[in-house]
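Provenance

Sequences were taken from public entries as deposited. Structures were produced by running a predictor on each sequence independently, with no templates supplied. The record for Hydroxyproline O-arabinosyltransferase-like domain-containing protein from Cucumis melo var. makuwa is shown for reference.
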Amino acid sequence: MGCGNLFFLVLVTFSVALITYNIILSANAPLKQELPGPSRSSSSITVDPVIKMPLDRSETSSSKRLFHTAVTASDSVYNTWQCRIMYYWFKKFKDGPNSEMGGFTRILHSGKPDKYMDEIPTFVAQPLPAGMDRGYIVLNRPWAFVQWLQQADIKEDYILMSEPDHIIVKPIPNLSKDGLGAAFPFFYIEPKKYESQLRKFFPEDKGPITNIDPIGNSPVIVGKESLKKIAPTWMNVSLAMKKDPDTDKAFGWVLEMYAYAVASALHGVGNILYKDFMIQPPWDTEVGKKFIIHYTYGCDYDMKGKLTYGKIGEWRFDKRSYDNVVPPRNLPLPPPGVPESVVTLVKMVNEATANIPNWGS
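Predicted structure for Hydroxyproline O-arabinosyltransferase-like domain-containing protein:
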């Protein structure tokens, strides 16, 4: 190893150690001292009050604004098979019409390489120090993004934060605009309802609680420089929320989503709430103009095509059925009467598994 490479390795190692030291301090320090960021600045952009989509979105730009797709994942069987399917469809649509999709990175927060490094472009991030996630593994996501943004050579000026259980169904343009991110609004992220909890992390001098958008960190397209500012705050807010018993109880499994929404607001980064970003079967029944299928919910139906949610159906597709084993190739298609969104999901899973080499190995 040359002197230059040795110096770079030492520098990276020191940087990671320094950040780790800082997050340990921040987890035990008063949050107020850890949250930078001005209040949200006003914007002159015209906004549709229903979905907060700029009214001039249809205007085309003469040059592409490429974004880099980043997906955080553990090395579990469950996360890995989803990432392989996700990357298959990313490659399918990357160069399609109107696409502004650039590079792709799986941010693997296991701390060590796995056997899929050659199949999927991967950055290996270190997990949080033992015990710091308090049994909530999702806290590794913001910490992984902090490391990736600091250490990786990211060519694109924008980032799409996505997840393993996302399937891209058509080429994605850059939906962000004029300093605003583009994000999917989640009905269960309710800043007004939880104002008493959120004010611990978003003080009144930062602005009205409505400055916090009803979003998570994914799917979100945001400027790279903005995300570099947001990510450390997102990490610190996540850790502080998890440490606070009342907030932890109130937010449960969506705690890290609230933390991203707060961090984005603290740095004055607003978001276009883009409902057509993705669908979530079985509740969304048509693909339509959407760009992503998010298969977070189980799909259970009887053989007449009737939804039996909450009860295991005669036909079902649920990612949780494959937490320790990959789904087999050629899954049975849904019975007649099942919505298009579910049929499309299963067909796309089947196409990917049929074409990904060494599936099941």
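The longest strand covers residues 101-108.
The first helix runs from residue 3 to 28.
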